[in-house]
Automatic annotation (TrEMBL):
Signal sequence segment: 1-35
Recorded name of the encoding gene: gloB_1
Gene Ontology molecular function, alphabetical: hydroxyacylglutathione hydrolase activity; linear primary-alkylsulfatase activity; protein dimerization activity
Keywords: Hydrolase, Signal
EC number annotated for this UniProt entry: 3.1.2.6
Residue span(s) of domain Metallo-beta-lactamase: 74-286
Region annotation Disordered: where it falls in the sequence: 172-201
Annotated protein name in UniProt: Hydroxyacylglutathione hydrolase
Amino acid sequence: MSKNRFSFDLSRFTVGAANAWLLGIVALTATVAHGQTQTDPDTALRMLNAQQQQFEKGVVQVADNVFTAVGYHGANTSMIVGTDGVIIIDTLFGPSSAADAAEAFRQHSDKPVKAIIYTHSHGDHIGGASAFVGDAKPDIYATESFGSAEGVNKAVDPIKQKRNVRQFGRKLSPAESTNRGVAPAGTKDGDRGEGFLPPTVTVPNSGLKTTIAGIDIEFHISPGETDDAMFIWLPSEKVLFAGDNFYNSFPNLYAIRGTAYRDVLNWSESVGNMATLKPHVVVPGHTMPIAGEAAATAALQDYSDAIRSVYDQTVRGINAGKGPDQLAHEVELPEHLQDKPYLIQFYGTVPHAVRAIYCGLLGWYDGNPTTLNRLEPKIKAKKMAQLAGGTAELTAQMESALENQDYQWALELSDHVKWLDDADRKLARKTKIAALRGLAAREYNAPNRNYYLSYANELESGQLSNVWF
């Protein structure tokens, strides 16, 4: 079968292979403190650049009749070739990106689309369906709870949209952009959702086994990153489509754009269930597939174990009376999982997960009466200035922290200084901008890096002159 210029062998990305991506990533992480996502700027940039190989644009043949398009937008889309038609799993962000992938797929089959499957309802997986089907009207499969991916918090959509732009670095300049951790930067985003086609077939909560275009296919309900998720299993080909419950990065158990609590125990269980099938290939919702039964099964089991370990450690800490700030700095992956390339914190982070688990189980209050009714920010800032010996002295401490590249402390002090009526607020803003960019340069976690840079740019342009949050 001929392949277009964007096609390549899946074996390059087998976990056990001694390829440049795996060797480079593992070697670089040796310099990083476990549990943290800050390192020296050169290492951070090299890690992010190496991770880009995970979404190099192309069509990957994962079985004789199964193809996955990677890098055509943020997510993956896959095509299964059957006897009299094809099945499409996930459809990217909009019709323009989907059309590019569909054209690439047609190099491998020109059979009509018999079915489309949505693994879950995140927009980057459902927005381009129309580009695949033309005038045909295929069956479109989704779960009973399809559409619940973002929970019920529509009231805060305005701020979530702003934070989404920051997390993904959508307004960063080419010089500032690296990637999105599990996806390339600079994707085609102008037609978001314009190709969405609503589901016509509901997969029951008990799952579904059926045959489409001569292909035996199984639908397994698997809540995790979203409550409406499912994974797809091809028993004859031994290929598993994981959706966003697995990709080559520590999972985004909490997204800094703002999300309802993601039930991490369900997530861990869902990925563990995938591992029991011992797939020959696992196709993630983002990043390159993993080939080979041993490699694919180990990756899924490690992923499940990592999520469960973070949960268990957090719960033990909670029951020992520890608060989220302390636990976020204490919990880390077990030693045997710390060097796994598919668990490096390019997208999700352990500290973010710990805080989300804490809040999801107990709410905002950490049990310490000191924090039950905290001082309002302006009053606290005045008392901090008094402790420092006055506004001038507190400002000097802020400038010293920045000069010493103690960027987090500089940020925190700048947030105090900005509240003081007799302070140089322009200097506080300037310090905060510099500290944000200093932190960004050291970040290999893409959402953190993008958020720091985006926020700095908004501050510098005056968009956040009156409210710094």
